[in-house]
Amino acid sequence: MLDSHQHFWKIARGDYGWMGPHVAPLLRDFLPDDLRPLMAKAGITRTIVVQAAETEAETDFLLDLAANTDFIAGVVGWLDMDDAAFPERLAHYRKNPYFVGLRPMLQGLEDDAYILRPRVLKHLGLVAEAGLAFDILTFTRHLPHVAKALAATPGLRAVVDHISKPEIAAGNLDPWRERIAEIAAFPNVSCKVSGMVTEASPDGWTLEQLRPYVDHVAKVFGPERLMFGSDWPVATLAASYGEVNDAARTLLEAHFGIEDMAKIFETNAATFYRVDGEATAT
């Protein structure tokens, strides 16, 4: 199986601006040897590691890990999409075979419509031309802006992270339900079944809390455009690696058979990130 979304970090690197006392259990290093036994127990053999800091140093850090870790299939990095030098930086990183995608952290930016800034939109077109994957990290309020950006960038291969973080704790399906369906109408957009447990009640989550959200993305994206992601170690604020895997499997099995589940838990992510072969790092 392929985990389409996990993170690594070394606290001493010092560029994780989102960290603080509110996520105290995460304020330590999380590295490949921490994840390896958890993957083995869950039957997962490869991962896509996704940036957790808004710096090129983060991208370099993850690419170095990928080159030295046998199970990392690819890296979704970060580049400044509103920088005039973006085309040159993109060309530089494209030379690295582990650089499979790009993610601006839209959810934390002051400008909800950042993705529609003229220079950002122009550079999004370069991402599409390069054939790279684009990860969409958003809350529900960002989705109308994302829809406009997708309409302006035909051919972009994009994936919504964490089903766009609906208000699971409050039990609110709307307006997320309609807005995520609008995003699903773009045929080149996929969705990660990930990041849900940390959006549920701080007092604990249940499968029944998560079920209506999974039911909806199962309906609007279908088995060809869903992929499993653990969001480890962020998810450990609410659940173990195995519990996240088991929850996704239980909820998705209500909709899909063995062949489709194989797509969601491996093939779709491998195809989307173009990592169809085995990871070859040593």
TrEMBL record:
Looking up InterPro entries in the UniProt record yields: Amidohydro-rel, Metal_Hydrolase, Metallo-dep_Lactonases
Domain Amidohydrolase-related residues, every copy: 3-274
The protein's superkingdom reads Bacteria
- Pfam families documented for this protein: Amidohydro_2 (PF04909)
Q: Which PANTHER family does this UniProt record tie to the protein?
A: AMIDOHYDROLASE, AMIDOHYDROLASE-RELATED DOMAIN-CONTAINING PROTEIN
Q: Which family does it belong to?
A: Belongs to the metallo-dependent hydrolases superfamily.
Name assigned to this protein: Amidohydrolase family protein
Q: What organism does this protein naturally occur in?
A: Kaistia terrae
